[in-house]
Amino acid sequence: MRGRFITLEGPEGAGKTTQIQKIREKLRERGVSCTVVREPGGTRIGDRVREILLSPEFSNMCQRTEILLYASSRAQLVEEVIRPALERGEWVLCDRYVDSSLAYQGYGAMWDLEEVKIVNRIATGGLVPDRTYLLDIPVETGRERLRLRGKKKDRMEMKEKLFHERVRQGYLTLAEREPHRFRVVDGTKTPDEVHGAIMRDLFLWAGI
Ligand code: Z5A
């Protein structure tokens, strides 16, 4: 039987990486084997593309290049890791996927949403997640978390606050448009509370 494809989405610092590790542990306890990946990157080619995408050195990157680079990293990840894992019956937990391109390049950078969709349909061969958890937090909260963590800002994080506000609202719009796939979780709660909210839904939805 094909595995399940779960994605986590949200603004910077929303807690996606923290939650993916917790979900993986909980699923392992239930005997579910998972492959965990993150975007951009997750393959040798994708990791190189990630370096280019996030390096502040390329502040002159044009919008088309940015959309295509995110999509190219994704194409490699789908082909090399995600589809094979799903076909082996494993669950795939993915930290960001196509919805990130729609939120950041579509809503954030205000590129034509349909064009972003078309490029990504080609990149993924039409592979859509089965379930998506959107960790919603105010932009300032996410920034403060990253500041406390002491992370140096990458090229995307250097964008203006208004850009990140559009990203957050864009995500909420995407979730509203696909209520059967998305679950919006309040990312301002404690890590354990967020985890509890995700797992309650995930167990119910998956019937395990
Ligand atoms: N991007 C794009 O534009 N288009 C695309 O198609 C794709 C991506 C795929 C990737 O950067 C950038 O690329 C990203 C979007 C863009 N840029 N932005 N802005 P990345 O992979 O380096 O970063 P990220 O995906 O934004 O992840 P992050 O910043 O590391 O955040 P996170 O994974 O959501 O959060 P975390 O690492 O779990 O937690 C952050 C900190 O908060 C950490 O110190 C935690 O201990 C703490 N934390 C976590 N949860 C909580 C709670 N609940 N309360 C308090 N503190 C918490």
Write a brief structural summary.
By secondary structure, the chain is α/β, with parallel strands linked by helices. Helices cover 56% and strands 12% of the residues. It has one domain (5-206): Rossmann fold (3-Layer(aba) Sandwich).
Folded structure, characterized:
- It is a single chain.
- The protein has one domain: P-loop containing nucleotide triphosphate hydrolases (Rossmann fold), CATH 3.40.50.300.
- Helices cover 56% and strands 12% of the residues.
- It has helices at residues 16-29, 44-54, 63-87, 98-108, 113-124, 139-149, 161-177, 191-206, and strands at residues 5-9, 34-38, 91-95, 131-136, 182-186.
- It has a five-stranded parallel β-sheet with strand order 2-3-1-4-5, sandwiched between helices.
- It is globular and about 45 Å long.
- The structure holds ligand Z5A.
- Residues 10, 12-18, 39-40, 70, 96, 100-101, 104-105, 145-146, 149, 154, 156-157, 190-191, 194 line the site of ligand Z5A.
Q: Based on the structure given, which CATH architecture is correct?
A: 3-Layer(aba) Sandwich
Q: Kindly identify the CATH topology.
A: Rossmann fold
The DSSP helix count reads 8
Terminal CA distance: 15 Å
Total count of strands: 5
Small molecules (ligands, ions, cofactors) in the structure: ligand Z5A
CATH class: Alpha Beta
Outline the low-pLDDT stretches.
none
Strand order of the largest sheet: 2-3-1-4-5
Q: Into how many domains do the coordinates divide?
A: 1
Biggest sheet descriptor: 5 strands, parallel
Mean pLDDT: 96
Query: What share of the residues lie within helices?
Result: 55-70%
Structural class comes to alpha/beta
